[in-house]
What we know:
The chain is α/β, with parallel strands linked by helices. Helices cover 43% and strands 17% of the residues. Strand 1 (7-13), helix 1 and strand 2 form a beta-alpha-beta unit. The longest helix is centred in the last third of the chain and has 23 residues, at 265-287. The structure holds iron/sulfur cluster. Iron/sulfur cluster is lined by residues 16, 19, 21-23, 26, 28, 71-72, 105, 128.
Amino acid sequence: METRIKHKNIPFFIPHSGCGHSCVFCNQVKITGHHLCESDVKEEVARLDALVESSLETLDGAKAEIGFFGGSFTGIENERRVALLKAAYRYVKTGKVLGIRLSTRPDYISTEILDELEIYGVTAVELGIQSTDNKVLEASARGHRAEVCFEAARLITERGMEFVGQMMVGLPQSDLEKELKTAEDIVSMGALSARIYPTVVFEGTELYRMTVGGTYTPLSLEDAVERSAKCLSVFENAGVRILRIGLHSSDNLKQAPFGANHPAIGEAVYSRAVLYNIEEQLSELKDLGFDNKVLKIYTSFDGVSATAGHNC
Ligand code: SF4
């Protein structure tokens, strides 16, 4: 039997740090203009060390990467960014972790930044692409155009780093066609992995005000599942690994008043993609004269739940 080496992330969250923007869907607490002093940075590095040390004890043979998530890592102050990278790199150099991954905005990637990330052993960069349609980017107040996404991905892949494309479904001015194009564009940019996030409307965001004011219609669960499943098929057909579909379950997510806030939306999307696949194969069988026959569907053990479906 094949023995698979498990892979885990040790996630260190830097909420909204490094971001001077206000995307309409973003509910992260804004702390712009707040610069950490030297002792704050030391304290943050100590927290990172404590997290990594305790995580290493529970890895159970799995290989791990340290992940800087939750903000725009390459946009945070130089001193703080380098201190965190240096601290994480010590674990890479000693072979305790495989590498470092981080998430950021496409317009916060440059040759100089990538030089620095390379020095400190960064192996993967996750870009919040969200959409490659300029109207959608503008309506979502992303603050950059689609061309910037293509250029950032090119710079990352040229270095041999893993490029991960994150996209959203259901943004203002978006539709299925634009979302399928975004998924295809992310594939063409050379993504090895992707994340799909159906849009959720949190209270206090511009998107919430747009919803209440009637200028934005939130995604229904059905639309979120259908559109995400079709994007998922684009990635799967291109051999792009899916790291996540939907936000992590949390009280915040439960309390979101509109949009795709189902805690198990990822499972529903996987299941729907299997259904579309089965339907496609059945229609081919029908053409071959296999109509009205009892068919057995075979799936891997891992695929039983998605094939059985979730009734949503
Ligand atoms: S770039 Fe990211 S952190 Fe900044 S406002 Fe947009 S979603 Fe929020």
